[in-house]
Fold:
Amino acid sequence: MRYRTLGDFRVGAIGLGAMPLSIEGRPEEKRAMATVHAALDAGVTLLDTADSYHLPGDEPGHNERLVARALATYGGDTGDVLVTTKGGRGRPADGSWTVTGSARHLKAAAEASLKRLGVEAIGLYQLHKPDPAVPFEESVGALRDLLDEGKIRFAGISNTDTDQIRRARAILGDRLVSVQNQYSPAARDSEAELRLCAELGIAFLPWSPLGGISRSSLDGPSQLEPEGFGAFHTVARAHGVSPQQVCLAWLLTLSPTVVPIPGASRPETIRDSARAADLALEAHEIHRLNAAADRP
Structure:
């Protein structure tokens, strides 16, 4: 596993998005725990969760508690594992995703996450999404206060644009260490945000990084989704690996600050994803993948 930096913390170049372990279609707990343990065995040291990763209408924090149990029952050393959680969203019974970004809510949410994770300080705490009904500076100010109080070690923001990144940076300075936006071959709206993070030395954590690639070739022959990114499959065949692995390896070539966080609900899936950190793509392959993804 290659490593990248997030603030002054070193993390594996591929993280684990733990969300699939707690939402609709989630696996039974034994398999969920095995998936987290497989990630750790493969060298993954960044685990991404959130208080809103649970079934609609269920009690917040299912995913945080699961991650905490998985770490507590892991047979190896977890001292180098960074858990990132997020606050500011909810999942009511109707299955929607609400947004609540007031300072009062975020501080209370962070306190609850601290207890569920069983830690003295949250490794990385991120604003899950800006709340249009709350001044952005109020939400980011809550992160600053949590940093000052020692309740979180690092701060990040998610689902934000370049202006918001700069505004958060003005408030948090170097303590803003991550931006978590959607980015994949099929979703490249955050190109400007990725470039800005590279310029500022802020970790860029793509969520849903496999968009445009079939969900899992481990289920059988890979099938292109309607968008059709055949180059990823062609390169995968040349290397004898999955197109998902090629996709993650390609993302790592975009910037040294990129740390993809693919979701997984089975041990074999995260093992395959983790191997992307060591997949060396040739220059002509990267050029072909860039063209397929229609990057500017």
